[in-house]
Amino acid sequence: MLQNIHIYEFPKGDEKIAFNVYEVQGKTIRNREYPHKTEQPHRHDYYEICVFVTGAGTHMIDFRTFPIGNRSIHFLTPGQVHLISREEAYHGFLIVFSREFYSMGAGDEDLLMTLPFFNNNTPEPVLNLDNEDFDELLDILGHLRKDLARDSEIREDVLRSYLHIFLLKCRYFFNRNNFDKETINDPAFLSLGRFRNIVERHFREIHMVRDYAGMMNMTPEHLNKLVKSQTGQNAGEVIMKRILLEARRLLTYTDLSAKEIAYKLNYDDPSYFSRIFRKKTGLSPSEFREQTRKKYQH
Predict the structure, then answer these.
(1) pLDDT of 34 strictly over 60
(2) CATH number of the domain within which 62 lies
(3) What pLDDT is recorded for position 12?
(4) In degrees, to the nearest 5, what angle opens at C-alpha 180 toward C-alphas 176 and 182?
(5) Which domain holds residue 30?
(6) Does 178 have pLDDT greater than 80?
(7) Same domain, 227 and 161
(8) Which has the minimum average pLDDT: 71-75, 86-90, 213-217?
(9) Between the CA atoms of 5, 101, 24 and 27, what dihedral angle is there, to the nearest 10 degrees?
(10) CB contact at 8 A, 22 and 93
């Protein structure tokens, strides 16, 4: 049986700020201060950006496995379960930072929540780029690494500014690669992002569409219509999908019983939760646990 999934806290080392950049060559992180052993699926309490210069290996994120390609970037949100399987030809960088570090500027936390590749907003938090676009991001990364090594009273502000630019550039490339201009400028598209972010903050305790509609100052009917126009699913299905993702994580990577998971997700009737889980996944919680642990235990 797998051990409960490990949650790593920010690897500060000698740094006084919750930001760092690590170079990775082959299977080794080239920084002896990096304290985490990552041979097993795990999660972090901080954000991580994996910049793959030379791709070699695979990356499992929340039950999906992505190939590690050249000139690609993978984004990880606090709480996501992942495992990078690197091969010798791999070369890249890990950018790690806390929400608190990024949110020092007024309103920046809200901006962080709107980024399409973070906060479980997409099933594929992956950005593949051509040479020109990737080199543009590598240039910003070079400035980050240079200023990280400087001893300056404004170092933290400079790092935060470069990180902000890096993320905005990634948002531009991600939206350009995945959506047309008409979609990006559609108010319904922006409202969907807001809805997803509210769900991310409250899915454990709030399950009803009407409650989310109230937080967005609209009727449940309007919210359902808006979400369906953008995703093909109604609002309730999006909420349930997020609840089930967390249930799948807990079943696979913890020893919590189905009953305990039900309570953790604010279901007073564990048998009702189990019926919903079976209906949506085709498996009972115990069957799902057995099946996925066989798959991931190695």
Answers:
(1) no
(2) 2.60.120.280
(3) 63
(4) 130
(5) 6-178
(6) yes
(7) no
(8) 86-90
(9) -10
(10) yes
Q: Which pair of tokens denotes residue 69?
A: 């390609």
Q: How far apart are CA 207 and CA 202, in angstroms?
A: 8
**Placement of tokens 């009727």 in the chain:** 219
Q: Which residues contact 115 (CB under 8 A, 6 or more apart)?
A: 75, 121, 167, 170, 171
Residues 136 and 18 in one domain: yes
Note whether 124 and 74 are within 8 A (CB). no
| Residue 41 within any structural domain of the chain | yes
DSSP string, 234-283: -HHHHHHHHHHHHHHHHHHHS---HHHHHHHTT-S-HHHHHHHHHHHHSS
- Using DSSP bridges, classify how beta strands 126-128 and 72-76 pair: parallel, antiparallel or unpaired: antiparallel
- Give a yes or no: residue 214 inside a domain: yes
- Asked whether the predicted pLDDT for residue 73 surpasses 90, the reply is yes
Residue 160 φ/ψ, nearest 5 degrees = -65, -40
Q: Are residues 150 and 207 in the same domain?
A: no
Count of domains for the chain = 2
- β-sheet bridge partners, residue 127: 73
Encoded tokens for 133:
């676009």
User: Is the pLDDT confidence value at 30 over 60?
Assistant: no
